[in-house]
Amino acid sequence: MGAVENALDNTEHRLPGEAVEILKSLAANWGDVLDPNELQVIRLKGAMTNQVFQIKWPTKTEDVSRKVIFRIYGEGVEVFFDRDDEIRTFEFMSKHGQGPRLLGRFPNGRIEEFIHARTLSASDLRDTEISSLIASKMKEFHDLDMPGQKNVRLWERLRNWLRVAKSLSLPEEAEAFCLDNIEEEIPILEEEFSQAYQCIGFCHNDLQYGNIMIDEETNSITIIDYEYASYNPVAFDIANHFCEMAADYHTETPHILDFNKYPGLEERQRFVRTYLSFSGTCE
Question: pTM of this prediction?
Answer without folding.
Answer: 0.82
